[in-house]
Design brief:
This protein is of the alpha/beta class. It is built from 17 helices and 5 strands. The chain has a single domain, classed as Rossmann fold, CATH 3.40.50. It is 55% helix and 8% strand. It is globular, with a radius of gyration of 22 Å. The two termini are 19 Å apart.
Length: 345
Amino acid sequence: MGRVINRLALAAKAFRYGDQKNQSVPSSAKLTMDDIREVKQFFPMEKFFIFGHARSGTTLLARLIRVHPEVHCNWQAHFFTRRPFLSSLVSDPEVNEWLTRRSNRWNRGQDLSPIVMRAVSDFILEREAARVGKTVVGDKSPNNLVHGKAVHLLAEIYPDAKLFFIVRDGRDAVISHQIQKFIDLPDQLNAEEFTIRQSLIKDPQGFLSKNKSIFPAGSLQEAANNWVNNITETNYLGKKIYTESFLSLQFEDIVDQPYFQLKRIWNFLGVDTDIPDMEESLIKELSENPDADWQREKQREVAKFIQKGLPGMWRDIFTEKDRKIFKEFAGETLVEWGYEKDLNW
């Protein structure tokens, strides 16, 4: 019953997001098609954005997508995915008054806010792409802190962009995220997390034998709900708002069929896919893992615990209790995305 209620609540939330008018930017402050045509006279590059839950392969996708000689991608601009958001540039009341002031003849009697935001982000993106000789540019920033709201914020400034959403088995994603906290944020762990981290360093086999959980009490339920919220809202709104300009992907498919999946992605971006040696370049990039190398160097005693980026690693780490918790709160979403055939796992 609890699982059914949770699913109904998530569905209701997704539909609510679909009808909600985001209030971070005034309703009048949206780019028109005329605005976009004018902006593109100065910033002509095609733009794309990659969203995804934390630890779902957004960085891998960014690295692979920019193997193409026409495409550049960098990460963590968080224009629309983490506070204070791009809109903070114009949210101050005095700034807003200045941009909408009737005596300001440069604004053509309208709010200049969306033009300012678009010009700032376009310059940041195109500046970097031009430096490396690319003509299509995008940013990847995980959106799990705000879920579907990120799609609304993006659409107000980039209705003409392409949006990718990458999904990973939530069980692997939450494990990777927890290990990342142990490695990157040891000073920010609470007492229980710190105890687990120390135990993991002293007795990793106790965790690999699935007798000990890496998750503090209550945190796995929260992580499962967060993953479901992100998947449900972003995919629903991406399809609803961006329609043909939205493409959902799965991390495991990219790992299993990198060349096939990247050709699909590049075709979606409208760039040439008939380029020699692209498959070899992709395989070479896929064989490297700078993130894992950096983490191993930073915290060897924790990083050696798991092989990063391997699909299905949850089977070696989830305790029986972990399995039951994740099944209760996210099992149906795993089935919807094809990670399980049913709830009998």
